[in-house]
Design goal:
alpha/beta; three-stranded parallel sheet
Length: about 575
């Protein structure tokens, strides 16, 4: 069932240090303002703050009351007010005449192998608006990691944002050369990847357990709110999902079809452990109560929650006819029955199932087909606007600019545009202008890339999801995530050599890079640790796929992402209609 790490797998670095550093700096800043104070917190910083310094810690440092930052005058009985906000203009308009300081919080450990910058706006800001302000934050985060855990001997990357972040980070390293000099590397490889290199994977429905929990309940900052339908009570419960939850840790990376069977067996084993009490004498019972009972009760509670979550997911997916949806997605990925798939999307729109879901399917069709033929584009767009409302018109403009939903143009015309714009793209002085135009030249070329990298496995008979053979299991055996395949291929070669055609098809000829420094100080263990940096967000499906690859090859992957994402979050970031 759960795939254990190989006995020779390298140990992960201790990332709890990042949390302690962030907490210590926050406490230092609070102590600069002696006496009682009220703390006003921006909404999207509340969850990260709770993971770093809970209410009791804040109270110890004379924080009287906590408030959410709102666009109205702050009402407080305290004379001293602290505001914890992101550097956004809309916030600064409401906060004036204050002394400013920086809380350099850039990395939050969500799990033993997952670090998040908790910057969900990164995707829209950079990939739609061309706003590069967060790239410096990424560079600072990488600099912090190399300062704490030693230099990275081998660096790889693909994508314009990845290259800019890498160059800025290297400049920081050169400015402070003494900090990592002589340090022994703890992590042997770092791989930076832009989200727009692989939109397809992020647009697919997730079918591994952790991904399904995220799609269904929304995992936020490493925790999820399970409602009464899961808890079997009249209350909701906030649950932390990480490796410390032993039940969750065994099923998180599993295809959903395997999860119920595992939980059933787990329940039987748990009952058998409880039943052992019947034949115990007093001494044995005392040992059982003091040493095992608490753990069994905790495991029973977690088991009940995950069974409840599975049942809730099943009900929702049955209602949505999930199997038909997955069948359509697989057809799009494989390039079969495109007319039937288009009809399915039209029906989805006409039935008004979900504006976000309908957009997602249209984008998946567009990217896998290298743009929609003009007739289909106009028809689907018209139907969508009639079904969900004309207020979505600007959203179509955003999707087009980002290269997510495009209309095919005659080959010669598009080639001419590509030729002109590619010159603009390589001109560094063009700055944001290049961002505005680059999407015009960006063709997905998904079919050609899929063939080159063998993304659609050819299997005789049925794909065995209980004993997966490759990373395709995260999508039911139908598709190997493109992002993960690229990482696998580059790590095998230790360079982009032999992948020139793939890089060209990805429109990244000028933005694929390798930097190999001397490995003499790197231990064999550190060379099997790989830090993967997703710029624009990564999905739990990609995390599960790379964990699987690590188990197969003897690597351990560490994930750093601007935020955890999924198809709905991607579409919401592009939408001009806020729910």
């Amino acid at each position: 069932m759960a795939f254990p790490h190989r006995p020779d797998a390298p140990e992960l670095p201790d990332f709890s240090m990042l949390k302690r550093l962030a907490r210590d700096q926050l406490i230092y800043l609070l102590e600069q303002l002696p006496g009682k104070k009220d703390l006003f917190i921006e909404a999207d910083l509340m969850s990260p703050l709770d993971r770093i310094a809970n209410v009791s810690i804040l109270k110890q440092h004379e924080v009287d009351k906590l408030y959410k930052v709102e666009n109205k005058p702050a009402l407080s009985s305290n004379e001293q007010l602290c505001f914890l906000v992101r550097p956004r203009i809309k916030n600064m308009r409401y906060i004036a005449n204050v002394s400013c300081d920086e809380w350099a919080f850039s990395l939050l450990p969500l799990d033993v192998d997952l670090l998040s910058m908790e910057l969900p706006e990164f995707f829209r800001d950079y990939f739609l608006e061309g706003d590069q302000r967060w790239i410096n934050t990424v560079a600072q985060a990488l600099h912090l990691l190399s300062t704490l855990y030693g230099p990275f001997p081998n660096c790889y990357g693909i994508g314009r944002c990845a290259k800019m972040a890498y160059e800025l980070w290297r400049n920081l390293e050169e400015e402070e050369d003494g900090e990592t000099k002589g340090r022994r590397p703890e992590i042997g490889h770092i791989f930076l990847l832009d989200r727009d290199v692989d939109f397809v994977t992020a647009l697919c429905s997730q079918v591994v357990y952790e991904g399904l929990v995220d799609d269904t309940f929304r995992i936020k900052c490493g925790s999820v709110d399970f409602g009464p339908e899961v808890t079997s009570s009249d209350k909701s419960l906030k649950v932390l999902l990480n490796a410390e939850d032993k039940v969750f840790n065994e099923i998180r990376n599993e295809h959903f079809s395997n999860v119920f069977g595992f939980l059933s067996q787990k329940a039987r084993n748990l009952q058998a452990q409880y039943d052992r009490r019947r034949g115990m004498d007093i001494k044995q019972m005392k040992n059982f109560v003091s040493q095992e009972l608490k753990g069994l009760k905790q495991e029973h509670r977690l088991l009940s929650l995950h069974i409840g979550a599975c049942e809730s997911i099943m009900k929702k997916k049955t209602k949505q006819d999930f199997q038909e949806l997955i069948k359509t997605e697989h057809a799009l990925l494989e390039g079969f029955n495109i007319r039937e798939s288009t009809s399915y999307i039209e029906e989805h729109i006409d039935r008004q199932v979900s504006p976000i879901e309908s957009l997602r399917l249209m984008c998946l069709l567009s990217i896998t087909e290298n743009g929609l033929i003009p007739k289909d584009y106009r028809s689907l767009k018209t139907q969508y606007l009639q079904s969900y409302g004309p207020e979505h018109l600007l959203t179509f403009s955003n999707l087009r600019r980002a290269g997510l939903l495009t209309e095919q143009a005659p080959g010669d015309t598009l080639t001419a545009v590509e030729s002109k714009v590619s010159k603009l793209v390589t001109d560094k002085a063009a700055g944001k202008i290049t961002d505005a135009f680059s999407s015009l030249a960006k063709r997905s070329n998904f079919r050609a890339i899929s063939k080159k990298l063998n993304l659609i496995p050819r299997v005789d008979g049925e794909y065995d999801l209980k004993v997966p053979r490759d990373m395709a299991y995260v999508f039911g055996g139908a598709y190997v995530p493109l992002s993960c395949r690229i990482i696998e291929q580059v790590l095998e070669r230790r360079s982009w050599q032999g992948l020139d055609e793939v890089v060209r098809l990805l429109n990244c000829s000028d933005f694929a890079f390798t930097d190999m420094t001397k490995e003499d100080k790197a231990s064999s263990e550190s060379l099997r640790l790989i830090l993967v940096v997703f710029l624009g967000g990564c999905t739990f499906s990609e995390i599960s796929a790379l964990r699987f690859l690590g188990r197969e090859k003897g690597y351990r992957f560490i994930f750093l992402t601007t935020a955890v994402t999924n198809s709905a979050r991607l579409m919401e970031a592009m939408s001009e209609v806020k729910a």
